[in-house]
Amino acid sequence: MGIAAITILLLTGCTGPNHFMAESLPENLRLASRSNPQEVNLTRLASANGRSDLIGPGDFLEVSIAAGLSEDDQVRIPVRVSEDGTITLPNVGAIDLAGLAPEAAESVIRMHTINKGQYRNPVVTVEVKKARLNRIKVIGAVREPGFVELPPNGSDVVSAIAAAGGLADDAGENVEVKNPIQRNQNRPAVALADGSGIAPVSDTQVSGSESQLNVYTVNLISAETAGEGSYLVEDGGVVHVERRDPAPISVIGLVKSPGPYEFPVGRDLFVLDAIALAGGISNQLADKVYVIRPLANSPDPAVIQVSLRTAKRSGKSNLRLGPGDVVSIEQTPSTVVLEAIQIIRFGVSGSVGTLF
User: Fold this and answer.
1) How many Å apart are CA 218 and CA 229, to the nearest integer?
2) Cα(310)–Cα(316) distance, rounded to whole angstroms?
């Protein structure tokens, strides 16, 4: 192809149904600002289930009942709180202690023993020897993946993530929770991943077992915005934090260091940023840039033309990039002429140098 043909091609540029100018780019092709889960106020998503020292199912207690001042008048009874929240004392029967602080439980037990005629004025003490803890597996984009243990009334998604060291730098917005539950257990409501509202979770039958998996997904961004929802994690549950691994961008053409570059997680990247990553332009007259963007619903990419000079003055022209975009700094007649002048100048200076 001759010089004239190349010049005409550069002047006319590319045209087609998928070619756009940055200033008049349709809104459906403009990318939204990328969210960063690291900036989410996770405290808004934590459950508020009250004190952590309240008695609950599975706790192991020691109940002491003293009828007088001597040691011989004191009885110590080790008991475990059953799943329905009750304990059973000899000659007294079942006593519901679920949700009570130890001090309140002492009063309840004292009244039951008096009502049953076992004691006239006993002194009762209740000590939680070993509180039940939920064992939860946290995997994915957290700093310390593995098993964590949390009290049942403080066992939620936020606490599980915090116990696993917090979100990793490449954490995504979505967290999937799988809770083992009994059939017909009430299902919590959760924030939809698309931020469109609140929906109940779904059950997935586990083969060969009477239990089910209560599976729901929390979108951290939309959940914080909604400021509501129940995000509890049961004993044996799994919390999976999405890991983001965006496709790199490529910067080619008239830059000093062309090549692929990692796309930053949770941070916006613009055309001028991409050129800076590639060391800047290699030709002072470079101005025309093509952003080649893959489209999910089309085999052909969108080609968006950007002017560097305009991009430096206008935020709308300094196009926000997405993973997989290719940024190509194009040759123009001006850049071709400048390169030709530099080649001629180099050749002349080299020839002069050989003469001396």
Assistant:
1) 9
2) 9
The DSSP code sequence of 10-49 is HHH---STTEEEGGG--GGGSPPPPP-GGGS-GGGGS---
The CATH homologous superfamily for domain 133-243 is Outer membrane lipoprotein wza domain like (3.10.560.10)
Contact 22, 319 (CB under 8 A): yes
Beta bridge mates, 205? 212
CATH fold, domain 3-33+268-341, is Outer membrane lipoprotein wza fold like (3.10.560)
Three-point CA angle 30, 35, 39, nearest 5°: 155
8 Å CB contact between 123 and 65: yes
172 neighbors 244 (Cβ within 8 angstroms): yes
What is the reported pLDDT for 222? 86
pLDDT in the model for residue 350: 55
Q: How far apart are CA 170 and CA 162, in angstroms?
A: 16
Nearest to 109 by CA among 128, 129, 99, 94: 94
In one-letter notation, the amino acid at residue 13 is: G
Residue 53, pLDDT score? 79
Specify whether the CB–CB gap between 179 and 233 falls below 8 A: yes
Q: Which two tokens stand for residue 291?
A: 């952003």
In whole angstroms, what is the distance from residue 143 CA to residue 168 CA? 5
Helix (H, G, I), strand (E, B) or coil at 93: strand
Q: What's the pTM?
A: 0.67
What contacts 191, CB < 8 A, 6 or more positions away? Answer: 197, 198, 218, 219, 222, 223, 226, 228, 229
CATH topology of domain 60-130: wza like fold (3.30.1950)
Residue 53 and residue 131: Cα distance in Å, rounded? 8
Residue that the structure tokens 């979770």 belong to: 201
Q: Which ranges of the chain have pLDDT less than 70?
A: 1-16, 47-52, 69-72, 182-211, 227-230, 346-356
Distance (Å, rounded) from C-alpha 244 to C-alpha 266?
9
